């Protein structure tokens, strides 16, 4: 799977179960009417159940300049969740999930369905709000390293 090039995102949630953010790349658009996103999240991680319990997420698409933020949310540096969030500028839109203000795009979503497949949750979210950042080069992960794409 390391030979499959993918855009890099930070998936966030906040609500009664708590605040969490993780770096992911397994994402796709399911539909544009209604706007629906699909994300895959490892369910073997101790705290990824917070996304399911909160029933909301924000998908923040990273630019090439945000590689350090991607690494922090992937666990490099062993930072706490509050320390990871302190590295970026965040706002909320409709769901209360943290939205990265300078992401290429942020999709604020309410969870509409969840399935367990092998080691992962497959989560479908209906987009309730969208934040578009400045255009730029997208952060891509391929062959276990970062690359850029776009203009």
Could you explain how this protein is built, in words?
Helices cover 12% and strands 48% of the residues. With 151 residues, it is mainly beta. The strands form three sheets. Strands 3-2-6-9-10-5-4 form a seven-stranded antiparallel beta sheet. Strands 1-11-12 form a three-stranded antiparallel beta sheet, with no helix packed on it. The protein is globular, with a radius of gyration of 14 Å. 32% of the residues are buried.
What's the total helix number?
3
- Category from helices, strands and their pairing: mainly beta
Mean pLDDT: 94
Q: Let me know the number of strands.
A: 12
Uncertain spans: none
Helical content, roughly?
10-25%
In order across it, which strands form the biggest sheet? 3-2-6-9-10-5-4
Radius of gyration: 14 Å
Could you tell me how far the N terminus lies from the C terminus, measured between alpha carbons in angstroms? 26 Å
Percent in strands: over 45%
Shape: globular
Major sheet details: 7 strands, antiparallel
The H-and-E topology, N to C, reads as EEEEEHEHHEEEEEE
